[in-house]
Every structure is written in C-alpha cells, then in structure tokens.
C-alpha cells in the first residue's frame, strides 16, 4: 500500500483523529501536526486505561454505592435479584458512555466499538458477564484477532447469545458455528450451489457446531458465584473427527476436547477469506463504505497480506491503512456519516466536556448520554442483530441508514440540549463546555479565526466562505468583528465574572447549535 | 374606527361631552374591564431587532432641547428644520417619513427612554438582557420562550402536531432567536425564504462529486424533506397575498416583512416573527459629514421606516391590520455626546417604536433630559423598564393571565397601556342591574341622560363603540351615594350601537344605547 507522503497539516491531522477516535480537541489536532503522522499513530496505539463500573443506583443490594459490582454475587431473593441486575445494567450503560467520553486519544475505544458491532452480542442476563465480555473485547481490541475470536467463542455472553451453551453432542446447535463463518471470519460469499457459499458450506456449519459442543455457562445472576464463567463438559462434547468442506481442502479436525475450538479457529484463520473479509470490514469502518475494484485490488489485498503475515495482529494492518495515501485521499474524506454515538461524542470530546459531579449525578448523566444515542438509533452493546448495525453492511445505503426523518430530528434535539442550559441532573448542569472549547482555539478573540478553527474540528472539508461568514455573524451577533474581540478580552480579563462569561458562552452555544445542524457536521 | 382618527375627523370638536379629560390619558383604562376573547390566538407580534445599539437621539429628537443637543453633538446633529415633527416637542429623523405618516394615522407610538437599571454597555451582555427579559445573569431562557413554555410545557416533544402545525415563532434569517429560547427547546424556527423554507441550511449544499458531496447532499435533502414546519410555511406563503406596492425590493427588511405579510395572509398560525437589522454600532461615520441627514444611520432608519410603512399599508389593504402589532428594540442607545469620529459610543436607554393599528397611539413617556454641558460617557437615563413593556405586550396582546406574566419576570411589573387601540368585546362584572343604570332617551338623537345609582366611590365612565373600542372617557371623579343624572350631547356620533361603561373599584357595568 502506498504510504502517504503529502503535506501533513491540520486538515490531515484532523482527518486522522476524526476517523480513529471519538473526538479530538483543537489542541489534540495541533499536537498531531507537531508530532507528525508516525508519532501520532504510535500514540494512538497506546491502550486507554479504564476503571470498572461502580454501583450508583439504590436498587443495587449487594455492594455499597461507589463500589464496583463486577465481581459481586446477586441477592437470592428473586425480586431483589432482578432489581440489582437493573441497577447494574444502568451502571454498565453509564460506564460505557463514560468511557467513550474519553480524554486520552486512543484507538482502543474505536476498535472496541468495532468489535462489539462485529460480534453483535446483545444480551446475557447478567451485567457481570456483559462487563467481562466488553473487557475481553477491550483487552484484544488492538491485539491479536485470532486470539480474540477464540476467546469470544467460549465467552459466557457469546455462549448464551448464540446458543453455544445448549450445543451438545446429543443436540448440536448450529447457531454459533454458522455465524462464526458467515459473520465473524470467512464471511458468506456467492452461493455456488445448494448449501455452498463460496467460502464455506453447510457441511462446515455442521462440523463447526460439533467442534464447539460441550461448553456450559454457570453463575448467571448467582447468589454464590462471583463471576459468570464457561465450563467445558467432556461428556457433552462430540469426540468424532470432523471433516471440513472442499473450501477448507477437506481438512480434518481431530477430537481435542476443550481445545478443539481453538484448533478449528486456527484453521479458519488460515483461510485467505478470513483476512479479506475482516479487512473489508475494517476498511468500511475507517475509510469508506464503497469498496471499488481498485480498492479491492490495491487496498484490501494489501491489508489482508499484512494481516496474515503478522499472524492476525491488528495493529500493523491499521497502522498501514491509517498512514496510506489512500486514507488521506480527498476522495474519501467526509465519506462516512457519523453514527449516533460518534456524533454525540464528537460534540463532547472536542471540547473536553466531561461529567465530573458526584457519583450518582455523573452516572445518571452518562446513562442519559447512552439513552440519547439509543434514541438516535444506536444502543451500544445492543446492536439490532448479530450482524451488527445495518449501516455497516447494508448495501447500497450503508451509513445513510443512520439518517431518517425520525433520527435527524433527534440529532437536532440532542444538539439543542447540549448547546443550551437545558440538561440538569440533581441540580447540576451538563452542557458542552463551549468556553473551554473557545479558549483552546488558536485565536479566540479573532472571530474569523474562531470559525476557521471550529470548521477544522467539526467539518471534514472546508465549507464555502459565505457559510463561514454567516456563522461568524452568529458569533459576533451581527456586529463588527472588533466588538467580539472587546467582549472576549473583557471576559479574559475577568474570566469568572458571569457578566463577561455568559455572553461569550451564549454566542458560542448559538454558533455550535447552527454548526451541529449543518449536514457537514454529520459526516466525517 | 381608531380613536385617533375619530378625534381627527372632528367628531370631538362638535361633541359637547362633559367632564372631558386630557385626550392622551386613555391609557389609564384598565384591560381588566374587558372580556378576554379567544381571538388572542390570531394575534401576531413583529419584533424588529436593531442590532448594535441604536442612537435613539438621532431617531427620535427631543426638539424642545435642540439647543442642548447642539452642545452635545454638534458634529452629527441634523438641522432643526429638517426634523419631522410628531408633536411640539418630539420629532423624527428626516428619513423616517413613512413612520411619520403612520404616526399621523394613529399607527405608531414612541415609548421614550426604554432601558433597564444598572445598564451594561457590552453588546453581548445587554442583548442577552433584552432577549431573556431578565437582569439575572443565570436566566438563559428568552422572555417569549418562557411564555411559550407556560402554554406548551411539553415542547419540543410531539411538535408540530395536528393542533399546532405551525411554528410558534419564526426568526427571519439563519439563527434561532434567543428571545424564543425555552427550557427544553427554542420555539423559533429560522426561515430565510418562506417559499423555500429549508430552515436548516445556511447556503445551498453543493455536491462536489466526491463521496462527501454525495453524503451531505443526501443529508440536506433529507433535512428538507423532514422539515415539517417548512412545508406549512411554504404552503402558507404560496397561498398568501401581498397587495401593497410600497415594498422596495432592494430593502432587505421590506422583503422580509413582505414575506411575513404573505405568511400571515396565507393562514400561518405563527404568533411571533423576529427580524434583525444590523449595523447600528455607529462608532464612526454615523452621519455623512457633508449632509448630516444622510449617512449610515440615516440609511438604516429609512430602511426600517420604509419597510414598516409598506408592511402596514399591506396589512391594511388585506384587512389584517387588527391582527398585527410590532415593535423595535436595540440592546442600548448611544451616548448623549457624539465622539470626534462623526459617531457615537455605547450608551443606555433609547426610545422604542411600536407600530400597528391597535397600538395606543401617541408618545408615551417624557423626553429625555439633555444636559447643557457635556458629561463624558453619559447616556440617556432609563424611564421605562423594557421588561414592563414586554409584560404589557403579553397582557394586552396575547391576553396572558397577569399571574402567569408575573411568573415570567423578575421585577414587580408595572403595566403600560400600549396596545389598547383595539378591544373587541366587553363584559360586565357588576351584578346585573345593581346600579340601576339607563340611558334616556334611547335610541338617542341629540342630548341624552345617563342615570345610575352611585355609591360613595370613585367612578370612571367611558364611551365605547359597538365593538367595545374606547372612544372617550366622559367622567373621572369621586361621587357621593346618590342618583346621578349626567347629560351628554351625542348629536355628532354616527348612527349605531354604543355603550357607556361605568367603572368603580373592581366592578364595571355597561349601558347600551342606540344612536339614530
């Protein structure tokens, strides 16, 4: 793949950060410009550090509020058990949103998001299991994909979600085996004949089901076990030798008990189709929805080679892609419509807006953020099907599926809420820290520069000068630019005085409100 | 018939009514006396924001203090003989002939020295104060936003709907109005052109042929399609009318007001329209130094005057005059003394103009006091609190319960009678017949008598026409408990139905008579 060798300016840095994080500040963009592309990429691969979710809802009946519940039992009483699960799921939802509202720039969250869409797990019935599952994805999010697929295969959440836990030698269940091939690894190709999908056949599905037999899940909402775990039951496993289809060169998988699933996944990853399928998906996530024949030959093929050559470590593939000439091509900039979560977090992270209140307030706010994304069509860790959100695979619309008459109104509602003083929790106001955002720009007292900087942050391409003037007019309230300069400098001289602070804030809120409703903000 | 035109037609001269009071004191009449007909739903309010700080002293001139003005601002002061007289002591900028005409027709009022205590001369802070209608720095909702919230507490959820298909307020341009910011949403909908009411885009989105261009084109198309208010607005504008030929297509405000006339006549139920005229921040070059009646400020004032005149003409031609009233405001006036750059710097209070056929015509408040010595940085002192004007508009125009209004404002409200020109129906609150009042003879031709049993109370009696519009106050005095026999000459009243309204304390009673 041809590496990028063009100019490295704020526009390129902003493009990279928009695609690889959930929102970068103006300072982040400047730092990336100064650090250069290579160092910026290295920094992006530093994993983010996350604390476990804490109990904050009074319905939690085991641990004290403020403590984590991830390794705590559930109450014995059925009602109390359900209430505690409700409290923990709320805590988990809030925690997810809190993690997305990230301070450090890392690809970790972006790839974690990719994987929870990729595997499509929604329910488990036990918040601890969901937490463990997400932590598993996080642990491998920038790591080895083969190992990730192995671990996910016997993860309790996945065993419950795709019926692995009821897949036994006596009653094989094909659900997981089919999705592993069709959605998680080799992918489903053209149907060549009945039961033959170019990349695998029904025979492979049946074999996979047998290979995966014997795993059980224990500890769901247990009042004695502190964790949900999976357990291999040898007597439930199919100990026959499995013969794969011609797509797999009729290889055989010998009975190997608890490790048989891993042997099989090694074989699946030896298939060139696996690397190609996963790289296409990565390409759609990071670059563009459309995979042209040129892209297939020049980008996907190279990615797949790199992927296989590095034993399915994901970092080399992403490093190569995100520093390629193609990635920075003007042709693909702005091609992606921001998902609801990406849009919401772009509003918050670009201004370093965090909920930093007491535990309950903070978690309630983040649960609301989780809920706002849900209203716009994206519930994290709960995609509509095992295939994930349609926007990531449904041709020809792809990302356009994020935008419809209901969702666009919701997007604007969210913009209204966060650029006003409307959102209050327990007497604490949560809103975009527009003045911090302003203060971080290159020349906050210069109205035209403020608009230029904001366009750099929020829009993937430059917008018409006439539009910039209109936005600037909103900042200056239609006054000559020097009046804004005076107002800002007065604020700067006495920054805590609301008489100076509030007008600056309200102008910036009005500016962001308009910018967030421009189509250009909704693409990245 | 408007009260002023009634007076000007000479009816007063030949009406020999006793106890005639000062002709401009009608604002003493309380709105409480009148029924609250539900026609408030049809009322439309136009707000014209003069952005930048309008030099009120170069718009409304206290001509009785021209000499003092000459001390303060000789380099920009318009020659006395060019100022358009409104009264013996008040004049308008020479470019505002349109508004002078409206004043003479009873469709313009000047409210003097409007401001707020402890003025702030920052454009941004002061505009926030004017749009929130509050001095409290923590108040972030607009005064109309709070009013709308009180009526439609669930906004913006479930709006628009079958009952409320139209936007509550329209902000002409690309920015929603802070005035209409409610708790959870902004009640104003931005419209640049109602015939193409794609409110959400600044300029047209052009597809640059890349994936990006395709995506933003798609999103903008969808935004327009789902702009539910947009369809209502363009339907109304398309089916609406405009009959005046006074609109100047080169006057942007006139163009916008014409849009509004079209939207109103097309049946849009929007209650508030907000317009913005920028450029009033005239620190230098406010006037043309070769001709002080010309220049930047003169052009701005002419733009407003011409546009409002055309709009009012249009409304009259379409029979919509009684549904529409408007006012201008600016975040502050400018200093009394001019600066050395043929301009003026940020000041304090300034006059506010109200227009419409239902306004209480005249000049409300006294002229500002212009000192005879220059006091650097002095502004015009506030006489009338703008928040009270807002409250009065809500009470008189939108007929909001005063208890609700008080809840919207932080000050103890003093109401001004500024929109009392059209009152459409009247009701008695006095127990029927308690005063045993009658007019004799009835029907009447020339002189007649109004008889009633007075208590020991202060009484006010008004003459009203058939639709309840006040024509005149005919009595205002303390009476002793006795039967009253008041004689009135009604010979010159046109034929038709009239009422006397007898008001005492909290009660009022109507006595109807017919003039032959």
- Rg result of chain A: 25 Å
**Beta-strand percentage range of chain B:** 15-25%
Largest sheet of chain B: 9 strands, mixed
Give the mean pLDDT of chain A: 95
- The total number of structural domains of chain B is 2
Q: What is the succession of H and E elements of chain A? A: HHHHHHHHHEEEEHHHHHHHEEHHHHH
What gap, in angstroms, lies between the N and C termini of chain A? Answer: 23 Å
The helix-and-strand class of chain B reads: alpha/beta
Low-confidence stretches of chain B: 1-39
How would you sum up this structure, described in words?
The complex is a heterodimer of chains A (524) and B (516). Chain A is mainly alpha-helical. Among the domains of chain A are: 151-270, no CATH class; 434-522, no CATH class. Chain A has helices at residues 10-20, 26-44, 78-100, 107-119, 127-140, 145-153, 156-161, 175-184, 202-211, 260-270, 272-286, 293-309, 314-322, 340-349, 359-375, 405-418, 434-439, 447-458, 465-475, 481-493, 498-516; strands at residues 215-218, 229-232, 242-243, 252-253, 424-425, 428-429. In chain A, the strands form three sheets. A two-stranded antiparallel ribbon of chain A has the order 1-2. A two-stranded antiparallel sheet of chain A has the order 3-4. In chain A, strands 5-6 form a two-stranded antiparallel sheet. In chain A, α11 (272-286) packs across α12. Chain B has 516 residues and is of the alpha/beta class. Chain B has two domains: 3-33 and 425-515, Immunoglobulin-like, CATH 2.60.40; 46-363 and 379-408, Alkaline Phosphatase, subunit A, CATH 3.40.720. Chain B has helices at residues 3-8, 11-14, 66-73, 97-104, 123-132, 143-151, 211-225, 228-239, 252-265, 296-317, 386-396, 402-408; strands at residues 44-50, 60-62, 84-85, 90-92, 108-115, 169-172, 188-191, 272-277, 324-330, 350-355, 362-364, 384-385, 438-440, 447-454, 457-464, 470-479, 482-489, 496-504, 507-515. Chain B is globular.
